[in-house]
Structures are given as C-alpha cells and as structure tokens.
Design brief:
Radius of gyration of chain B: 17 Å
Oligomer: heterodimer
Number of helices of chain A: 8
Strand order of the largest sheet of chain B: 1-2
Structural class of chain A: mainly alpha
Shape of chain A: extended
Distance between the termini of chain B: 28 Å
Radius of gyration of chain A: 23 Å
Strand content of chain A: under 5%
Strand content of chain B: under 5%
CATH architecture of chain B: Orthogonal Bundle
Number of domains of chain A: 2
Number of helices of chain B: 7
Protein name (chain B): Biotin transporter
CATH topology of chain B: Arp2/3 complex 21 kDa subunit ARPC3
Family (chain B): Belongs to the BioY family.
Shape of chain B: globular
Keywords (chain B): Cell membrane, Membrane, Transmembrane, Transmembrane helix, Transport
CATH class of chain B: Mainly Alpha
Order of helices and strands of chain A: HHHHHHHH
Helix content of chain B: 55-70%
Membrane topology (chain B): Multi-pass membrane protein
Subcellular location (chain B): Cell membrane
Largest sheet of chain A: none
Number of domains of chain B: 1
Chain lengths: ~200, ~190
C-alpha cells in the first residue's frame, strides 16, 4: 500500500521548498478571497495552469483529482446559477476550483515527508505547551505504520465474524477491533519503554 | 504523557484513517459524502477521553495536511481545507474532544442511552455547528440551505452514534481506559 499523492518530476516547482509552497498557497487563498474580480481570477487561472505545466504534470495524471473536483463543483455551479445568477456561479466555482487546484499542486509536487517536516517545524512553538518534537515524530511514524496493519485487522475480524454468522453485526466487528488495537498499544508501549524512550516531559 | 498514551493517540489516528478505506457514499445534491470516518471520531472520543482523542484527531489533521490521502475516497492534502467539506473535517477535533470530555464526566454511570446522547451532542451538534457555516461560506450558500442540505446526514449519524455508544459501553467492561492512571496490569474497576 503506497501512501501519498506525490508524483516525482525534475522541475523547479518540485525543488521549491515545502514551506515556500505552503505559504504561497495560504497567500493565494487569502488573495482570492479578498479580490475575487474576473481579471484577477483569469490571471490566477492562467498562472495556475502555467505552474502545472512547469511542474510537468500531465493532464491525464490529474484525472482522478478532476473527477473528485467535478463531483463537488458541478452541483455547486448549478445550484448557484439557479439561485444567484450565472455570473456569481462562475466566480464562486472558479475561485474554489483554483484553490483546490493549487492545493493539489502542492500535494503532487511535495513529498509528504517534507510537508510533515515543515508542519513539525511550524508547530515547534507549541513545545511550550508540552508538545515535544520527539514525541510528535514517534506518534506520526506509529500512525503511518499502523494504517495498513489496521486495514488488515478490519478484514481479519470481518472474516472471523462471518464464519460465526455475525457479518451483519457491526458491534461484532468494532469491539474486537478496538480490543485488538488497545492490546497492541499496551505491548507496543512496553516495547518502546524497554528501549528507554523518554516520553515524559523534561520539566 | 506516558508512552502508552502516545501509542493510543497514534493508533486511534490510524483507526480513523483505516475507516476511511471503506468507500464513501456520495450524495447527488450536496458536495459532502457519507463516510464511516465520523464513527472513528466518536469511538476515539468515547474510548480515549478528551485529551487523547483531541490529540489523535490533531495528528490525523497533520497527516492529511501533509498530503496523505487518508480521507474517504482517497481525498487528502491541503485541498481539503478550502473545499466545501473542510468544516466537517475540522469539526472532528472539537467533536472528539467534547465526546471525550463528557464521557469522562459520565464514566462511572455510563450507559448506552447516556453514551448515545453524548455522541449525538459531539458527533452531530458540534460537528454540524462547524461544518454547516463552513459549507455556507465556501460554497456561498445561504446558511439555511446548507443546513437543510446537511439534514440528510442525520439518520446515518444517528446510527453511527448508536454504534459508538454500544461499543463504548461494551468496551468499558472489556478494556476500560478512561480512568487514566492505571498503574498495574489488572484494571482497577472500582465501579460495579
């Protein structure tokens, strides 16, 4: 199971720092919210498509994202056209589409690990409130490790319960799944402690 | 926080992600799908308590913001936040926190109806209080229209709340977690 939307290319968009891209996205979101006039939207659309070309992302690779977008935007467009007129509809939907496209561009051109590192750095001031970077990293890596494992457990418990004729009882799935999760958590915590991971606050 | 708590937070974040692998159920008239993930949010709250459930959902946010497609239907990345569903996603954290907080308060006398009420309050009232205005602003819909459109989620969410409630009460007997300081292995179940 591979996680992440990242597509590797050799492009200036890919080599730009994750922090810069995420800050740029934030700025673009704010700008489009404050100045949603047609010329601004047109320029932004051209710039966004230019960035996709610069990142060498083939339109075909955008197909799954485009389906997701269309499924959100088409009903919205029709609803707005009907409620508030087609001008407003074009403007609202275009602004939304631009933001979603730009955010997708960041996800496609930045490794999840780089983005995580940037977010962790941005969260460093939270250390004052007891969020230590070491503990945060441990939790993040545990979560990533456990997503595929847990998906396997869901299947296992479901198979076991269908043998007992309980496949239609959601409680018969959830309770064993949670007990399994909690039992694993205990074993894992003991194993981590046995390796002298210091989880307590230094203060 | 003990190592055990860190691991609980991490594993429940993973659980919410794993529930996202069940396919979402799209609705033709509203750009927000029905997913099993809110069930994970309710379970986190009623199993872990306020602090750990809030952290688990915070961790999940971090992973999604970093571009991992962990939301139902393979959705993820920063594009989630400016989207119409952003508010429902952001609302998971306060929803889980409130469910956890109320479950902790009600722990000694937790029954299925009580847990159900708690999950409805957090998983429906709080979640919608964040999600509906967000949908209205992002999609530039009148608030009443956004609220009306979201009503279709209520039946599904009531079923999820009922499930989370019975799971929480069963789990309280099988593997109680919320009385936080549990030094030795056999759980000191003072009640009953």
């Amino acid at each position: 199971m591979s996680l992440g939307l990242y597509l590797h290319r050799d492009s200036p968009v890919h080599t730009a720092s994750a922090g810069a891209k995420m800050a740029g996205l934030l700025g673009a979101g704010l700008g489009l919210l404050l100045f949603p006039s047609p010329p601004v939207l047109g320029t932004a659309l051209a710039a966004t498509l230019g960035l996709f070309a610069l990142a060498r992302i083939h339109p075909r690779e955008l197909a799954p994202m485009a389906r997701l977008l269309a499924w959100m935007l088409v009903p919205l467009f029709l609803l707005h056209g009907w409620l508030a007129g087609w001008d407003t509809a074009v403007q609202t939907v275009l602004r939304l589409a631009l933001l979603l496209l730009l955010a997708t561009l960041v996800s496609l051109t930045t490794r999840a690990s780089d983005q995580l590192e940037t977010l962790q750095r941005a969260l460093r001031p939270l250390a004052r409130f007891g969020v230590s970077p070491a503990r945060l990293s441990l939790m993040l890596s545990l979560t990533l490790r456990f997503i595929p494992l847990m998906a396997t457990w869901v299947r296992e418990v479901r198979e076991a319960q269908s043998v007992r004729g309980l496949e239609r009882d959601p409680l018969a799935l959830l309770v064993p799944l949670l007990v399994k999760t909690l039992r694993t958590a205990d074993a894992l915590a003991e194993a981590i402690d046995a390796r002298c991971f210091d989880s307590e606050d230094p203060s | 926080m003990k190592t055990r708590d860190l691991v609980h937070v991490a594993l429940f974040a993973a659980l919410v992600a794993a529930l996202g692998l069940l396919p979402p159920f799209p609705l033709p008239w509203l750009p927000v799908p029905i997913t099993a993930q809110t069930l994970g949010v309710m379970l986190a709250g009623s199993t872990l308590g306020a602090r750990k459930a809030g952290l688990a959902l915070g961790l999940f946010h971090l992973l999604v913001a970093a571009g991992l497609p962990l939301l139902a239907g393979g959705n993820g990345g920063l594009a989630v936040y400016p989207g119409p569903t952003g508010g429902f996603f952001v609302g998971w954290l306060p929803a889980a926190f409130l469910i956890g907080w109320l479950t902790e308060r009600a722990w000694a006398s937790l029954s299925v109806p009580l847990a159900f009420a708690i999950n409805v309050l957090g998983g429906i009232v709080v979640l919608y209080a964040v999600g509906i205005p967000w949908l209205a602003v992002v999609a530039k819909l009148p608030l009443a229209k956004a609220a009306l459109g979201s009503l279709v989620f209520v039946p599904g969410d009531l079923v999820k709340a009922a499930l989370a409630a019975s799971t929480a009460v069963t789990l309280k007997r099988a593997w109680p977690l919320i009385p936080a300081p549990r030094p030795a292995e056999p759980p000191p179940t003072a009640h009953q």
